[in-house]
Structures are given as structure tokens and as C-alpha cells.
Amino acid sequence: LHIYGENLYVDGFTTANDMRTQVGSDSIGFPFFNVVVRNGDHSGTLTAGTTGGGITVTSNSADGGSNCVVWNNKLRDFGLVDENLGDRDHNGMNCGGTTNNLWFLDNDIRNVSGSAIQVGAGNTDCHHIYIGRNYSDNAAQAGMNNKYGQHVIFSQNIIKNVKACSWTPSKGFGVQYNPHSTWFLYNTITNCASGIRLAGANTSATPIEIYAIGNTLDNMYFDTEWVKWGATLMVGKGNYEFHAHNNLSFNTPKFMQVEGSNTQLYVRNNIIGFINPDKTPAQYEANMFHSLGGAFDSSPDIKNNYISSDIVDCRFNGEFPPSGTKTP
Fold it and tell me: What per-residue confidence (pLDDT) applies to 328?
């Protein structure tokens, strides 16, 4: 199903057997403006698959593509979740190209062999995307992911049960490459190796601003396929400015793990409950904050966090947390 044009309303459409739905195109001649896709039921096939997704919204600079709402759709069974067949990004939903002013709202996405939702896979021209109140269960790689999208908000989504793969660890949310101004607001994440992961490989000359505010993260586990993985928040090597405020984290091997040294950290007013040493192999002891990259280029700003009395080992790089961190 290929949708393009102006002022279009697509309601209650059903697809099956891996048939795809696409709004706009990377090729010239398919612009879109003011499009609603709602109340659909889309199913793929439980086979290896390649790339793409159940619903894709994309555009090019010649045509343009903006003002699209994808609301209240059901998507399921896109690819083999439980087979390591290579990095195939067989996602539930995608957006990319020059798309802007797009809303993915209230969609239910289950059993996909990529991310449930992926933003900006190819370039930094995809911008102003709002992803809210979606449900993801049993995805591979990541629940939701932003690679190059600019000014992207993930809000009030629920993510459960993300499977690790041989090429990437399990994470509820992921960012990678150059995703400037990405916001994670009031989401719920459970049963992943990491709740929010900032991957490496970005080459931005200016810090990439990432905000995690008001999220609930529960039951992060130590990833045996990826030694050392297992934390609520994970920051890779890259030029990041990461703000983590007012989050609730519990039942996890670590609260935060940082791989690089040039990240600017602002970690304030979080509630950190029950760092679980049973989830961490002996060679990677449970820490509240842990850096694998040595000393930071700038001092991390870690203040006014509340640590549960259940936490026995609440260290920062092997030392007691900075002043201003509160314990009972």
C-alpha cells in the first residue's frame, strides 16, 4: 500500500503476509502533506525477512513530506525474533528521508526482528518527530531507536522484553550516530539489558544533547552475550551531553555505565532502588555509577539522587558517590 498526496485519511486498512504500507517515498514524485493512517491491522511473516517495516513514512528534498499522524495501528510478526540471522532492521515502523512533523501515537507493536520503531536511519534531514503512548513487546535489538533524527521526542511509551543479538545488546531505547536533541520522557521500560543506551560512533563537533526525564526502568539484566552490559543507563563513546533527571530505577546490575571519557553528564534527582548483585557476574561487581573509559574530560554533575537502603555497593568508579547524593 503506497500512500501519497495531500489531505488523505486512511482508516481501518488491513495487510497480511508481509505486505508493507508506505507514506511518501525516497524517490521523486510522491510528496505527502496532511496524512492520517489510523486503526490498521498489519501482520508480517515469521520468516527471516530483510529490511523495511510494517509502516514506513519517508520523503525526499524535492517533494517534501510533512504533517503525518500514524495512530492506533496494530503490527505483529515481522521476521524471526529468536534467530541471529544478521543485522536486518526488520522494524515495525520506520521514518526517514526529509520527513518532518510526524506523530506515531498509540500503536501496538509485537514480535519484530528489528526495533519496534526506528527514526532517521539514513541522514539528519528527518526532524521534529513525536513518538507517544506506543506499546512494544518482544523486539530484537531495541524497543525504539533514533539514529539521525533531529528534535525527536519519545514520551509515555511502554517497552518490554527486548532480545539481544550477536551484533548488538538489548536496550529499551537506543540512540546512535548524530541524533541531536532527543528526549525520553515518562516512558516505562522492563526486561532489557539496558534501559536507555547511547551508542558510540557519533562524530559530531558539538555535543549531542540527550534528555532522559521521568522514566521508570525495571529489571535490567546482565547480558551474557555482551560481557559487561547490564545497566539502567548506558553511555557509549561519543560527544554526548546527557541529562538524566527524575528517573526511577530498580532491580538492575548498575544504574549508569559510561564507556567514553568525553561525555558531559548531568545526573540529578533520580531514585535508585535495589542494585541487584545477583544480576552481575563476580568480575563486574555491582556499582551505582561505573566508567569504563577512565577519567572524564569534564567533571560529571551528579547531585541529589536518592539511593535505597537496599543498595550495599553504591560506588562511583570504585569510590563512594559524590557529595549531594542522598542515602537513607
Answer: 38
